Amino acid sequence: MAAADLIESLHLVEPTSYSTRGYPHEEWATLRKSAPVERFEPEGWPPFWAITRHADIVEISKSPQSFLNRDGINFEPVDTILRDDAQVQMRTIIEMDNPDHRKYRGVASRFFTPRSLGKWDPMIEALAVKLVDSLGEEGEADWVQDVASLHPLSIICRILGAPEEDEPFVLKTTNEIFGRDDPEFQRPGMTAQESVMAAAMDFGGYFHKILEDRRKTPREDLVSLFANARVDGEPMNEVDTMGYCLVMFIAGHETTRGGLTGGMQALLDHPDQLAKWKSDPDGYTKSGVEEILRYVTPVNTMARTVADDIEIGGRQMKAGDRLIMYYASANRDEDVFEAPDEFRIDRNPNPHLAFGIGEHFCLGAHLARKSQQALFREFVSRVEFLEQTGEAERTASNLVPGIKRLPIRYRLRPHVG
Questions:
Q1: What does pTM read for this prediction?
Q2: 3-state class of 227 per DSSP?
Q3: Model confidence over 300-336: pLDDT tens digits?
Q4: Which residues of the chain, if any, have pLDDT below 50?
Q5: Which of 171, 93, 132 is nearest to 359 (CA)?
Q6: How do strand 48-51 and strand 322-326 relate by DSSP bridges?
Q7: Where in the chain are the domains?
């Protein structure tokens, strides 16, 4: 029996499967061992190639001319694709191929270098202290709603230039856009598609006003950079400018929240690793966050379209075929990581693919690292007691299937420093 026959293909793509079963690590392990490049045809979904091995994902990612982003990086059911085809889609740099991708990525690439981001360190660290302080000395909280959602949101809003008082609106709208497959985040009386389109319109209208203001009066923020950017000597058009604002929330909020929530779950599940981290918060924070990124892998998938007939992993693909790269599977690859299913905050080396690799390496990677390092360092250095008080709930998504609720009980010592 072929390996593919042992796998329920809907477990690989169906959003509700991720919310109820979590990441399909057992299925991925089977595929990595027996069929690392395998074609599936799940009912109601387009046919696709599942790419589950680290080496194959690296090869594909480093060949952008052969594997294209232009048809989108989300993998969606057939009925969603048919509806989307009739609508104008906002284009982001993630959906661009070269030469456009390099031109548009260059608009913000200098802003996101480690050196450039250094000026934001005091703000990022102060927000971490403020959030942990807000929990009080002891009590109960939802780690996601009360902490993990708020820290990256506050950071990216400040960097973009959105006022602090608008953060609840931005959080609600981005939840509706990126949680489109989860009924909880859909607007009442609307289908998932109607809801996400309404949220996107609200998001666009909100940032249109800010962009207009920054064209008249530029500031030292990211929206001012976008509002006045030029590509090929011409002003960046409104749709692409809005796409840049949107992708910043993908890179700066949604995925970082996934790391913060999944990381807390990992620490709750592995108290020995929490104890080790507490013994030396400064010493383990960088490697601890890198291990969280590997173990959790907030961005689960990216889709590509095959440009020309090509062979990958001994399998022949045809031009136009769709494939899905499973980063969460690559980050558990036995050929790359020792004891890959173990959570080790001192893991070294750790060549994970949580931010991708190659041409489309995550533009916000350095910012995501800073955010998670600041918050985990602050929390771990102060926590004296920690336990989970209820079941975690996961978002229905195959792209960013993060935890949306995680109830905890804690006791904290005061901030020192």
A1: 0.93
A2: helix
A3: 999 999 999 999 999 999 999 999 999 999 999 999 9
A4: 1, 82-88
A5: 93
A6: parallel
A7: 3-412
